Amino acid sequence: MLIREARPGDEQAIHALVYALAEYERAPEQVTNTPEQLRIDLFEDKICDALVVESEGTIVGFALYYTSYSTWKGRCLYLEDFFVLPEYRRGGIGGELFQKVAAIARERGVKRMDWQVLEWNEPALEFYRKHEAILDPEWINGRLFFS
Amino acid sequence: MLIREARPGDEQAIHALVYALAEYERAPEQVTNTPEQLRIDLFEDKICDALVVESEGTIVGFALYYTSYSTWKGRCLYLEDFFVLPEYRRGGIGGELFQKVAAIARERGVKRMDWQVLEWNEPALEFYRKHEAILDPEWINGRLFFS
């Protein structure tokens, strides 16, 4: 398995993984983004970046992130999505992918790397604890949706 | 009171309000950002934008935001900080500021506006409920800090 930067043509596979993760997170109906929009956002407008995990030519995992901002800290890196198909998780590839994103955050000189995890997703919480992350349940997400 | 876009020279006042909000949020020691860094990030590198509330030449409130990304939805607007000094809150200026940010989100054509609120901050929760926001407590913040 190899980890590489996403490139044009990967958008279908990334979108399929976004959907698979949303299914696991019990919210597949909330995915309205399309592979074509992902292609534009990642490779044309470059408002986010992604790494993919490839196994024998198939994309089996990905991490998507962008530079965010904290008034307290300054520039941060936001890890928006991070997923490896369960059947490919042995061998520590998830940890490798996570560390690779953290290394990119360090390279960019940001102060903090942020993400969110569902409160009932115990395997993910355990994974992040193992990576010495701070897990803070004190904040509630506020959202306004526009159609 | 008037709401206007932040401009160079406002960074000291914005930083003071960031600090005042962090004090209210019981975490002033976590503010390591500086007025000078805020100036660069807002007005030179333009990685975020801000609106300020001015009362007789004094800045008494602000909202700071940037374009973020959701793999589920596409482009979003993240409202990173939003604060009006308590003594200036009468007259609905907070609601006006919030609606102004929502209008900017709509203008940018984003799918969603996001922010976070502390679970014990009942006045803020009540404010967001009044503005018909979705409040979702199911996500935990994960963080890695870099020094």
Question: What attributes does this structure have?
Answer:
147 residues; 33% helix; globular; alpha+beta
Description:
The structure is a homodimer of 147-residue chains. Chain A contains four helices and seven strands. In chain A, strands 1-2-3-4-5 form a five-stranded mixed beta sheet, with helices on both faces. Chain A has helices at 11-24, 35-44, 93-108, 122-130; strands at 2-5, 49-55, 58-70, 74-84, 112-118, 134-136, 139-145. Chain A is an alpha+beta fold and 147 residues long. Chain A has a single domain, classed as Aminopeptidase, CATH 3.40.630.30. Helix content of chain A is 33%, strand content 35%. β6 (134-136) of chain A pairs antiparallel with β7 of chain B.
In short:
2 copies of one chain form a homodimer. Chain A has a 5-stranded mixed sheet with strand order 1-2-3-4-5, with helices on both faces.
- Give the strand content of chain A: 35-45%
Overall pLDDT of chain A, averaged? 96
> In which order are the strands of the major sheet of chain A placed?
1-2-3-4-5
DSSP strand count of chain A: 7
Number of structural domains of chain A: 1
| Alpha-beta content class of chain A | alpha+beta
CATH class of chain A: Alpha Beta
CATH topology of chain A: Aminopeptidase
End-to-end distance of chain A, in Å? 40 Å
The total of helices of chain A stands at 4
Taking the sheet with the most strands of chain A, its summary is: 5 strands, mixed
Percent of residues in helices of chain A: 25-40%
Low-confidence region ranges of chain A = none
CATH architecture name of chain A: 3-Layer(aba) Sandwich
The CATH superfamily of chain A appears as Gcn5-related N-acetyltransferase (GNAT)
Shape of chain A: globular
